[in-house]
């Protein structure tokens, strides 16, 4: 029998999970059954992906950087990559701002729904707001920079939220290796090469289970989802975010690929599809990273030294989907709560949403948390997050897919700057 391609298997897992989730919630004990007996397999799957993320970043980044010819090549690649990340993020946030002002989704929300959302989700949101505000109050303007430099690498490696610190350390090791004579680093390089092969094999093994993993994740998502009425009430807001995300992926990224790479947009989307599906199912760019790297290497033929530098950094700092969503969400909340934002305040959303998306961790719900900062910068009460809380998960799934597609797009464009 011909083997079905992995992305179709994942898609079948997604659809199957949704159907089984719906079926189960028709029965009184269905929700409990899904949570007790199906959801744990989804959690195991995400844990496996997260488990491999840090070893993968360390070996592939050290190997990738040390494979570059010299530090000039690294700084050239680094500056171009970061520049492109910033450019796409600013395009995304500006698009989000344009759309939300055009559609004015705030005008579509009835007073009743508004009251209900604030009542139902007020408590949870208050806790989150307190958490973020307490952290923010203690931080100076340069703190994000300080946070990148770890004081103890083992401590950094103990939490996936410290990915930027791991990246920083791995790049330094790679640079030292470029600067040293080859015979002094040869042995270590070989260890990194084998480490890389081993980690990639583990990714293959994990991916073998991915259809079952996403099946469990989707079934649990449906079982735990709020009622469909919530989606109807927040329909125009959600559609505005979705429209923006679609324009970014199929409009903006297609144009970049078409004009600045040697690949057709169709080829690009076909190659990155499995990673998009996984980003959608896991809502985490970090958990999807191993697969984004695999698709970019095998399907999009991006050089290893380039992608192992571009993608881990992209997963943590480049979040076009998140940033677009934050612009729409912030203005939507302001509209509903009756704030009249000046042009200067709207423009400050561009700056804060860009920074907030860079600072957001590559995990589920991080974008929502960072929205607190965007709202505070324009003087809107962060308690308004309660309004959009109910539909955040599906939008998180979509924006994560967009985030990783943006990273892959930049990797494709940077391909020509690798070692010839
Ligand atoms: N879940 C997103 C990601 O991992 C971040 C967000 O919440 O927007 O890319």
Automatic annotation (TrEMBL):
Signal peptide residue numbers: none
Transmembrane segments: 7-29, 41-62, 82-103, 163-182, 202-223, 235-260, 346-363, 369-391
UniProt xrefs under SUPFAM superfamilies: Proton glutamate symport protein
Coiled-coil region: none
Membrane topology, from the record: Multi-pass membrane protein
Record keywords: Glycoprotein, Membrane, Symport, Transmembrane, Transmembrane helix, Transport
Compartments where found: Membrane
The name this protein goes by in its record: Dicarboxylate/amino acid:cation symporter
Species for this entry: Sphingobacterium arenae
């Amino acid at each position: 029998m011909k083997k079905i391609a992995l992305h179709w298997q994942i898609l079948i897992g997604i659809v199957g999970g949704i159907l089984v989730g719906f079926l189960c919630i028709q029965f009184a004990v269905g929700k409990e059954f899904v949570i007790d007996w199906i959801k744990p397999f989804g959690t195991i799957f995400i844990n496996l992906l997260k488990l491999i993320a840090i070893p993968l970043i360390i070996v592939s980044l050290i190997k990738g950087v040390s494979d570059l010819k010299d530090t000039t090549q690294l700084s050239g690649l680094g500056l171009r990559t970061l520049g492109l990340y910033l450019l796409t993020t600013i395009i995304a946030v500006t698009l989000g701002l344009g759309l939300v002002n055009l559609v004015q989704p705030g005008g579509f929300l009835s007073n009743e729904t508004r009251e209900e959302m604030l009542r139902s989700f007020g408590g949870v949101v208050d806790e989150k707001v307190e958490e973020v505000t307490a952290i923010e109050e203690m931080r100076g303007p340069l703190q994000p920079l300080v946070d990148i430099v770890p004081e103890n690498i083992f401590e950094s490696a103990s939490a996936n939220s410290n990915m930027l610190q791991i990246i920083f350390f791995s790049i330094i090791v790679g640079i030292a290796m470029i600067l040293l004579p080859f015979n002094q680093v040869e042995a270590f390089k070989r260890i990194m090469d084998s480490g890389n092969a081993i980690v990639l094999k583990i990714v293959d093994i994990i991916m073998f289970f991915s259809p079952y993993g996403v099946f469990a994740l989707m079934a649990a998502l449906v079982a735990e989802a709020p009622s469909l009425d919530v989606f109807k009430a927040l329909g125009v807001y959600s559609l505005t975010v979705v429209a923006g995300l679609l324009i970014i992926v199929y409009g903006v990224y297609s144009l970049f690929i078409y004009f600045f790479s040697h690949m057709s947009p169709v080829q690009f989307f076909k190659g990155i599809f499995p990673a998009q599906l996984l980003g959608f199912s896991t809502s985490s760019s970090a958990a999807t990273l191993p697969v984004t790297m695999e698709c970019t290497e095998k399907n999009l033929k991006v050089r290893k030294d380039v992608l192992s530098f571009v993608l881990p950094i992209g997963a943590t700092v480049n979040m076009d989907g998140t940033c677009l969503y934050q612009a729409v969400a912030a203005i939507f909340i302001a509209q509903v709560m009756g704030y009249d934002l000046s042009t200067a305040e709207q423009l400050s959303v561009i700056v804060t949403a860009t920074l907030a998306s860079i600072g957001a961790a590559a995990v589920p719900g991080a974008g929502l948390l960072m929205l607190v900062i965007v709202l505070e910068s324009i003087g809107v009460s962060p308690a308004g997050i309660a309004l959009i809380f109910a539909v955040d998960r599906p939008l998180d799934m979509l924006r994560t897919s967009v985030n990783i597609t943006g990273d892959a797009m930049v990797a494709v464009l940077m391909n020509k700057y690798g070692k010839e």
